[in-house]
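Hello,

I think I submitted the 4'-deoxy-4'-aminopyridoxal-5'-phosphate job twice by accident. Can you confirm which output corresponds to this input? Input:
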Amino acid sequence: MEPITLASGASYFKSPAMATTAAIDALNANKTFYGPTEGTAALRQAVCDKYSRQGQSVQPEQVLITPGSKQALFNLFSVLLRQGDEVVIPTPAWFGFHELMKYSCGTLVPLPTTLHDNYRICPEKLRQSLNGNSRILLLTNPGNPTGRLYSKAELEALLEVTNEFPNLYVISDEIYDHITYSQPFTPILSCVGAKKEKLIIVNGFSKSFAMSGWRIGFILGPDDVIKKCIDFQGNTLSGLPEFVQEAAQSTLEQSDEALEEMLPILAQNRQLMAAALDAMPGVTYYLPEGAYYFFPDFSAYLHKKTPQGEELGTSIKLAEYLQEHYNLAIAPGDKFGSPGHARLSFAIEPEKLQEAMERLTQGLSELV
Ligand code: PMP
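Support: Only one job matched these inputs. Its output is below.
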């Protein structure tokens, strides 16, 4: 049986042709030396243009080009956090946040949300989780692993609470911003109550543009924070290769074309996965409005045994069983702060997805 993975965060799509062309042209033009730490002027401007198309006015000095969004977050954690600071993260959340925190000062404070409540962040619960030590509220919109998209009204209700805490920064990880289905994405910058001096956007090219291997992302934030991050980046990594920056610039400048192929396929795959999950008795899920994952609850199966007589008990064991007997990889929910669930990516070839869902259906039906 050929291996199939639904566990990866990278999609199967090719990087946009204009990215590859721009990188090759830049290499041929010998742009192979240190790039400017903060990013090329043209790419910083292209980032500003992306936000001005959404109606936001931002300046190049507010942008730092980073080697991926992960490093963007690490820069921010490094310059903003001091011992005793708290980072509030609604869960389930991408496991990378928790892993990054191991290398930063500060303590992660989970703010649990549930499938039962459609992964809504309750403003009152947010208020209860904040105090004088709270330094960062880290939102992910659209969410990974939930696919949850926050509406303008929801974001504004959250900002009303965060604005009561002058020491607090809101970081909005918007790396899946172009990947939406049923409703449009709301940039947090467009919300009433968005205080530019306390609001930071993290974004990148890995997801929307299938460019995870190029390692490029950016931070958009207040000048003083960006200055500190430039200093940190200059003294640790330096600037990104110019040919990578030119690839990213070209992609942003032609973003509609770059997104053309991917979005309709993802929309179809989403339907396919939803239909397969609907046919699995006892499996419940939130229909993702963005990103490319489902995060179903498999608890109804975890009291069962494998046909080989092994107890399951956790979605980690369920993942092991599917891997061993069906050559199918899924990402257990424990890593995301939601045991019993598992993250399934639908950003794979449609035929493989069909086959994966057949294997999953069969695997679950054979549990006793
Ligand atoms: N934030 C979120 C929510 C992600 O899902 C990921 C990748 N899985 C990242 C950041 C990191 O992305 P990058 O490849 O840009 O470092």
